[in-house]
Amino acid sequence: MTTPVYHIPALLRESINGLNIKEDGVYVDVTFGGGGHSRAILEELGANGRLLSFDQDLDAQANSLNDNRFTFVHSNFAFLKNFVRYYGVDTVDGIMADLGVSFHHFDTGSRGFSFRQDSALDMRMNRSSSLDARTVLSTYSEEELARLFYLYGELKQSRRLAAAIVKARSTGDIATTGQLLEIVSPFTGRKHEKKELAQVFQALRIEVNNEIGALKSLLSQSLEVLRPGGRLVVITYHSLEDRLVKNFMRSGNVEGKIEKDFYGRVNTPWKLINNKVITASDQEVESNPRSRSAKLRIAEKL
Questions:
Q1: Rounded Cα–Cα distance for residues 30 and 37 (Å)
Q2: pLDDT 10s digits, 22-61
Q3: pLDDT digits (tens, 9 = 90+) for 169-194
Q4: Fewer CB within 10 Å: N-end or C-end of the chain?
Q5: Under CATH, domain 12-103+211-301 is a member of which superfamily?
Q6: Parallel, antiparallel, or unpaired for β 259-260 and 226-236?
């Protein structure tokens, strides 16, 4: 019996190259997961280099690396600045963020992240959190549900989905992924059923884990934590994340508001390393299909 793979990182070599690692530098991997990016960073560091790796899911700590240059930080990356300072670091040379959900979460049925397995509706990255998917479906108003399906799932049927959920829960709690599928499946087109079901689950997962809020916090804190010349390397997997990262790297704010000086030059704290987004090669997608939607953006702090 083979051991399940915790995660296969997408765009591994491209993202490590993007960090432009210095042997004696200090780096942060804010999405440790299976440790793929962290291992690759350590391979580039010398004896005096240092790596701090964040993950809010304690399951990831089982993948912790036995290396005196490495520190595992059990925390959401929304608290990046506080924990970097806590571990005695003022500024860092690079920040790596792979915003994809680990294979472990999708493939572990009990976590409730996937519609492919019938399990309890959970979806919490941090299992000590009080908000899970079942609570969202049980307590959010019809308007709130419609909003999250529209904003986070980009679903055209958001209002009809919300109404169906509110109607269904009036006769009993929606407690499992199977129950949720029964409710929402009639509103998905046969041709795009899997994609639209994935969007429903994505919307709930983003809400449960406050993923957009955490990303905004990470981006704003990266400007405080990175030293001049330091690199921010981010891999996104859906348009909501990518839009925020793209705006931030171009303008220094997630809204993408461009400010110019007297001479018409754009005021930005970043230099873009890749103007065109980097995506997985055909060969990578063939060996790791989940890398198909990965988009890599790299910027250097001025």
A1: 10
A2: 999 999 999 999 999 999 999 999 999 999 999 999 888 9
A3: 999 999 999 999 999 999 987 778 88
A4: N
A5: Vaccinia Virus protein VP39 (3.40.50.150)
A6: unpaired
